[in-house]
Design goal:
With 360 residues, the protein is mainly beta. It folds into three domains: 185 residues, Sandwich (Jelly Rolls), CATH 2.60.120; 50 residues, no CATH class; 111 residues, Jelly Rolls. Helix content is 3%, strand content 52%. The chain contains two helices and 24 strands. The strands form four sheets. It has an eight-stranded antiparallel sheet with strand order 1-12-3-8-9-10-5-6. Strands 13, 14, 15, 16, 17, 19, 22 and 24 form an eight-stranded mixed sheet that branches. Strands 2-11-4-7 form a four-stranded antiparallel sheet, with no helix packed on it. A hairpin with a 4-residue loop joins β20 and β21. It is elongated, with a radius of gyration of 29 Å. The protein starts with 9 loop residues before the first helix and ends with a strand.
Length: 360
Amino acid sequence: MSEPYWEPLAASLVSSGLVKLYDLILPAAAANFDITSLTQEYAHLRLIAQLRGDNASLNVGAYLRFNNDSGANYNGQRLAAGAATVTAAEALAGTGAHIGYCAAGSAGAGRAAIFGVDIPNYSQAVFHKQLVSLNNRNDSDTTAQTDIEHFISNWKNTAAINRITLYPNSGNFAVGSRCTLYGLDTRSVASPASALISVVTSLPASPYDGQEVILTDSLTAPTYSWRLIYLAAITDAYKWLCIGGDAKSVRVETDYPTNPALSLSVPRPGIYNLDHGATWYLLDTTSTVYSTDLVVDGAGSYAYYLTRGTANTSGFMGASAGHQPGVVVASTILQRTGINTGTIGRIERRWIKAMPVRLS
């Protein structure tokens, strides 16, 4: 994947209200650009693309499909001009929204087509969804092969658009084809931070280098929030770097052994800094050992022990805490507690905290 440098564009994008949601240059031929888990916080969408197909033909059609709907639910109209000839055509009950044509495998080397597509009011669930597309195609130097085409399409569905798939009607899109999607924010865009960072409950499926988000568990009653930035240069799977936020945590007041296990689930696999602890009470005067340990994903164990000597009296209280940095966690952290056999005591106020370093 090849990405443009983002920061120099920030000022112009903020002033215009455009926020980049997706950007991909194909490193290899691909059947489509599939943009999933679209955020619903913007008013309108703008898609910009430069495309070439690899099918053995002069050109191929380019289409959009919304929410993976491949039914006969798209109506469209085309107006085209090639040389001095203007043509028009209607298409009803299509299985995708036709947005134009692009040069394909039989076209001259280096030839492609560009597209600009506007999708208004995509996040509302009142009207059928509509688009307007402008297409510039240049298949060869032969007359009438440099066309300008205007397309409109109507998707007969009122659902908010959460997925957009751009695909050719035959073959694949060729190496170097590019698709970029922007959200148009009609709210105040006085500060770049508010315009460029989205609050989400799941990470984008197709992130771009330098993208920032705030990940939380709820948009109405959040219990944690992590500010993350996607760094494509990281060589392992954990490319979302955490640059701020508070730990996800769990705490119980009930005592061991009444409730012997305490667990915390992480929302995303990643590398975490783990903290945990407990408060313990001695109810006898014999030598007593109390222990807590963490078991991660049913495997790795990180143990901490506390010892009280015989000189102490019954009713003595203490607390333990442990810190384990850089632990790979896929799903679950379990805190176990224990007291030596034959001794009397209890462990209360147990807690676990997990703070991400990097997420997948």
